[in-house]
Amino acid sequence: MSQVHVVNHPVVAHWLRILRDKDTPPHEFRRALDIVTHLLLYAATQDLETEPVSVETPLETTEGVQLKSRVGFAPILRAGLGMIPAALRLFPQAQVWHLGFYRDETTLQPVEYYDPFRHKACTVDVAYILDPMLATGGSAVAAAHKLKEWGVPRVVFLGLIAAPEGVALLEKYHPDVPVYVAVMDRQLNDRGYILPGLGDAGDRQFGT
Ligand code: PRP
Ligand code: URA
User: Fold this and answer.
1) Cα atoms found within 13 Å of the Cα of residue 158, Cβ hemisphere only
2) Is the pLDDT score of 31 beyond 70?
3) Which of 37, 58, 69, 185 holds its CA 20 to 30 A away from the CA of 155?
4) Is the pLDDT score of 1 beyond 80?
């Protein structure tokens, strides 16, 4: 069974309302997405491995820790791009592997248009798929498949809003992939949009 973690926090809920608001302009939307991503990542990375390392304070030597895992972020283009600034602020050394999928508007199936992994050996211990919306789940399932095929030992999905349909599909194909989101919404409409949702996360960020 995959684990679904809904990060219930008043600050997350406050910024989520701003993200949902149809009158929030793109620059405010990007700022809200950045803040919520930062908070979701705090929750999603609490089990990262560390190793002991000594540190010299101005007064004496003491024990500290450093992160051990090689962290990779896998934003799904385009909407996942807005989650990268927060991710790199928290993990400046992380790798970013862009995944090019768009959702066909008629079939709602993901279509791959950019593959970053061709002929490259896996170089991360844990990969966080970044995408604000988990709607039908098709894009997230394809992204998790791609990362596992590349050889990533641990894959985590991080998003803003999930629909029950998307969580169920991800659970069916990747029960080992934990899901971290700010909220679980009610359902999809007949065009595959999340209700109540926030509309098209890519268009909302980039003003298209
Ligand atoms: C959106 C969103 C996800 C996908 C979710 O991307 O950012 O990638 O749809 O839908 P699914 O769970 O049904 O697969 P979209 O295809 O609109 O591309 P964009 O980010 O370039 O706007
Ligand atoms: N993609 C989006 O950007 N929004 C939705 O509601 C569903 C898919």
Assistant:
1) 30
2) yes
3) 185
4) no
116 confidence band (pLDDT: 50, 70, 90): very high
Q: Which ligand approaches the C-alpha of residue 110 most closely?
A: 1
Whole-structure pTM value? 0.97
For the annotated catalytic residues, the residue numbers are: 103, 107, 200, 203
Each residue's pLDDT tens digit, 51-96: 999 999 999 999 999 999 999 999 999 999 999 999 999 999 999 9
Q: Is the CB of 19 under 6 A from ligand 2?
A: no
- DSSP bridge partners of 4: 179
Q: Does the Cβ of 194 fall within 6 Å of ligand 2?
A: yes
Whether the Cβ atoms of residue 157 and residue 124 lie closer than 8 Å to each other: no
Determine if ligand 1 sits within 6 Å of the CB of residue 110.
yes
What contacts 11, CB < 8 A, 6 or more positions away? 35, 39
Assess whether the C-beta atom of 139 lies below 6 angstroms from ligand 1. yes
Burial (CB count <10 Å: 0-12, 13-18, 19+), residue 117: middle
* Residue 174: closest CA among 151, 189, 154, 203: 154
Among 76, 103, 112, name the best residue to mutate to test ligand 1's pocket (greatest count of ligand atoms within 8 A of Cβ). Answer: 103
Minimal CA–CA distance to 133: which of 39, 14, 20, 12? 20
Q: Which ligand has an atom closest to residue 188 CA?
A: 2
Tell me the chain's radius of gyration from C-alpha atoms. Answer: 18
